[in-house]
Design a protein that fits this description.
- By secondary structure, this protein is α/β, with parallel strands linked by helices.
- The radius of gyration is 25 Å and the shape is globular.
- The strands form four sheets. A six-stranded mixed sheet has the order 1-2-10-7-8-9, sandwiched between helices. A four-stranded parallel sheet has the order 5-4-3-6, sandwiched between helices.
- Strand 16 and strand 17 form a beta hairpin.
- It folds into four domains: 223 residues, 3-Layer(aba) Sandwich (Rossmann fold), CATH 3.40.50; 92 residues, Rossmann fold (3-Layer(aba) Sandwich), CATH 3.40.50.1100; 76 residues, ACT domain (Alpha-Beta Plaits), CATH 3.30.70; 84 residues, Biosynthetic Threonine Deaminase, domain 3 (3-Layer(aba) Sandwich), CATH 3.40.1020.
- The chain has 20 helices and 18 strands.
- The longest helix has 17 residues.
């Protein structure tokens, strides 16, 4: 199977649409981590993503009869743009089914490349089901985003270029993983020619379908998939990609949203390219690999797989970068409610910079402050700050890894209710489309009162919403039965220390 896949990669037709992208050195990162770090620039493709390679190669394998029927796919972004461009170039009619939550920038880009866009459902699965129904109805040819050997072969041409452009020492290649098409193609070609080079997959920690499959020895379906890096938000790795690469990859690293944001900044500083979060995923994994293994003097390469991001989203990415770089600690600190307390607190911190400070009067005894403190990257310095404060008799709660604190509490104002209320707090992910909030509200029982609400638009496919609800008649034990019927992802936060300290 390996040899057959490599032959398909070498025979792949991609350069009628795709271009050969360069490898950019990353001098700032290389000095910082004492390794030679290289970035394969797939963000420079005509559709700003590697996806054009697989889409065009699959289209090139179709017969004239198949092309005459027209092609269709389901996609929320990069594959859609790749297929739209490939179909237009070949004179083939293309229909793209996209979830209604797809950012307008991606919908417009697909339409601009000549494809018909059908918006259906709130998630990729609903769009995929509708695409298959249209295949049955109209006889279209379905072009998979990753689960196809010709798509894999097209993506594998990335590895052909990498090994040709860099013939010297190469210790490891880091590949972003969604459905697995790219890593299957890269792993097959690299392991066939240079088995000494490690091929390491990188996944978002809340959509790690390849990691789960490798651990189980078979493909599994994740119960939930995070949407922060929507380009790799896949609940199950593809059947064909998994068959190709399950014995070829040398490991999988998972990273957080904050670590991806930090990698976006790293790519910008070294190349001036603005990557999407999934595009910076493999660099985030490369950095984590260095931290975990202590690697020095090695040559490591990652793939900037795409640059299709909403401009509005950059504010949120920048906001989380310092946390991803471990340059900021977010703390809840209890100080005395009296004049001079804040000055004393800053004196205890020493020469460290306070990056954020939020406070509201609660009573005349103690004040809970929400504070950001600049720390040295690496993580150990955060604990040193906490210990220094505790030695000075401050009560400290570390909120640096607390999603509720980072997404909502730091932006909320208004303080606590004047009286004790029977409130349950939940965090939701809502699809960003008209009517989504009303759908949520209308499905709540009529006697539930909303006592807290916080929402911020981050320019992503999903919005993050914090809701406090007063549930009468002791019905709180059944609250999640009602929430399950709505169909949005949620997390109970009523016992979260950030909520207890600042809002309860």
């Amino acid at each position: 199977m390996l040899e057959a896949t490599v032959k398909k990669i070498l025979q792949a037709r991609v350069y009628e649409a795709a271009c050969e992208t360069p490898i950019s050195p990353a001098p700032f990162l290389s000095r910082r981590f004492n390794n030679t770090i290289l970035i394969k620039r797939e963000d420079l493709q005509p559709v700003y993503s590697f996806k054009i390679r697989g889409a065009y190669n699959k289209m090139a394998q179709l017969s004239d009869e198949q092309k005459a029927k027209g092609v269709i796919t389901a996609s929320a972004g990069n594959h859609a743009q790749g297929l739209a461009m490939a179909a237009t170039q070949m004179g083939v009619k293309a229909t793209i089914v996209m979830p209604r939550i797809t950012p307008e920038i991606k919908v417009s880009a697909v339409r601009a490349r000549g494809a018909k866009v059908v918006l259906k459902g709130d998630a990729f699965s609903a769009a995929a089901e509708h695409a298959k129904a249209l295949v049955e109805e109209h006889g279209y040819v379905y072009i998979p985003p990753f689960d196809d050997i010709d798509v894999i072969a097209g993506q594998g041409t990335v590895a052909v270029e990498m090994l040709r452009q860099h013939s010297g020492r190469l210790d490891a290649i880091f590949v972003p993983v969604g459905g697995g098409g790219l890593i299957a193609g890269v792993a097959a070609y690299v392991k066939y020619l240079r088995p000494d080079i490690k091929v390491i997959g990188v996944e978002s920690e809340d959509s790690a379908s390849l990691k789960a499959a490798l651990e189980a020895g078979e493909r599994v379906v994740l119960d939930q998939v995070g949407v922060f890096a929507e380009g790799v938000a896949v609940a199950q790795v593809g059947e064909v990609p998994f068959a190709v690469m399950q014995h070829l990859v040398d490991g999988v690293i998972t990273v957080t949203a904050d670590e991806m944001c930090a990698a976006v900044k790293d790519i910008f500083e070294d190349t001036r390219a603005v990557s999407e979060t999934s595009g910076a995923l493999s660099l985030a994994g490369l950095k984590k690999y260095i931290q975990q293994t202590g690697a020095e003097g090695e040559t490591l390469m990652c793939i900037n797989s795409g640059a299709n991001t909403n401009f509005d989203r950059l504010q949120h990415i920048a906001e989380r970068t310092s946390l991803g770089e471990q340059r900021e600690a977010i703390l809840a600190v209890t100080i005395a409610e009296k004049p001079g307390s804040f000055k004393k607190f800053c004196r205890t911190l020493g020469k460290r910079m306070v990056t954020e400070f939020s406070y509201r009067y609660a009573d005349d005894r103690a004040a809970h402050i929400f504070v950001g403190v600049q720390i040295k990257p690496g993580g150990d310095d955060r604990q040193a700050v906490i210990e220094r404060l505790r030695e000075a008799d401050y009560q400290v709660e570390d909120l640096t890894d607390n999603e509720l604190a980072k997404l909502h509490i730091r932006h909320l104002s208004g303080g606590r209710p004047s009286a004790n209320v029977a409130e349950e707090l939940y965090r939701f992910e809502f699809p960003e489309r008209p009517g989504a909030l009303m759908n949520f509200l209308t499905q709540l029982p009529h006697d539930w009162n909303i006592s807290l609400f916080h929402y911020r638009n981050h320019g992503a496919a999903y919005g993050r919403v914090l809701v406090g609800m007063q549930v009468p008649n002791g019905d709180s034990a059944h609250i999640e039965e009602h929430l399950d019927t709505i169909g949005y992802r949620y997390w109970r936060e009523s016992d979260n220390p950030a909520y207890r300290l600042f809002m309860a």
